[in-house]
Amino acid sequence: MPRDVAETFTLGAAQIEPEYHDAEGTLDKTCRWIERAGDRGVDVLVFPETYFPGYPYWRRSTSIARWTDLMVDLGANSLHVDDDAVETIGEAVADANCHLVLGTNEVDDRRGSETLYNSLFFFDRSGELVRRHRKLMPTHDERTIWGRGDPEHLTTHDTDVGRLGGLVCYENHMTLSKAALCADGEEIHAAVWPGFWEQHGHPGDKTRADSAAARDTCDIYPAVREYAFETQSFVASCSAYMSDDVPEGFEEGEIGFGVGNGGSMLVNPAGIVKAGPAVGEETLLTAEFDRDERRATKAYFDAMGHYARWDAVNLEVRDGRPEPVHDHHPDDRPALSAARAQTLAEEYDVSVETVEAVAEAVADDG
């Protein structure tokens, strides 16, 4: 892992309301706030869950027919990795000289698929889209909106301010997913959410947070602090914000389950909240951090070092992307070596020529 990383850096959470279901308007607003972050010296900027072009708060409030129409509209305004909008965002990132973690609805790039994913797009300072993360398991009835992400996206990557990773919403509660990023050397973590809420007894009974006092029952507040402490990571937690205005194209009452009232926080590796939670406003939340904050926490509790017991507990992480078509008879099977042919000949008491002939016949039959 590279050690020539910055000793101090600034994290930013862009708690910004999208132009709902409007790709062009959201793109313009995204670039303007990236520019603001650049002016404030932000090194890593995080936008909320599915900020582009908005979280589907309508999913529980409409008929199936209306749901279908809105799914079509959402897909038409979501991002695809080959969209010109991705290049435009990259140009804004390069001008701002920052790293970007953008929450987006993503249109699948697999041939023949129109499935949407709840994704994070990671851009480096040059403006290149370096990788993405798709939420592995959409929560509850989100499964009617998004597909399940691929194992290959559960990873991190190096930047000039530290190794960067990210998870979406309840993934930040998933013990093994968190452990996977920690084991991959994560140092800076982006946690994105659809808002901030008060829980009334259980996760299925929650309402929009009215103020930061909602942290007493909102699971996000302890989750991001514990994530920071247990992995010794700097955490930029960015939550969605929506005003009370009814978006264009929607009717009163269609945007249900409106928990999008902010709640973003910036947390150091000791679990100390250095900024936020910012509730009830559109804002760019920033805070400066020092790598010694991580070193000091790890001196006491190092989850990847002196406190680890891999002989007692370890983790298996799968990678790769499942594909619909598999070649069960690849042409690049290794040829039978002379040494292996000789071994088989001796083992079965036949000539080397016989072994080679059988091997050739098997290869020809495919």
UniProtKB/TrEMBL annotation:
It comes from the Archaea. GO terms for molecular function: hydrolase activity. PROSITE patterns: CN_HYDROLASE (PS50263). Gene3D superfamilies: Carbon-nitrogen hydrolase. The keyword Hydrolase applies. The keyword Hydrolase applies. Belongs to the carbon-nitrogen hydrolase superfamily. Nitrilase family. This is Carbon-nitrogen hydrolase family protein. The lineage of its organism: Archaea, Methanobacteriati, Methanobacteriota, Stenosarchaea group, Halobacteria.
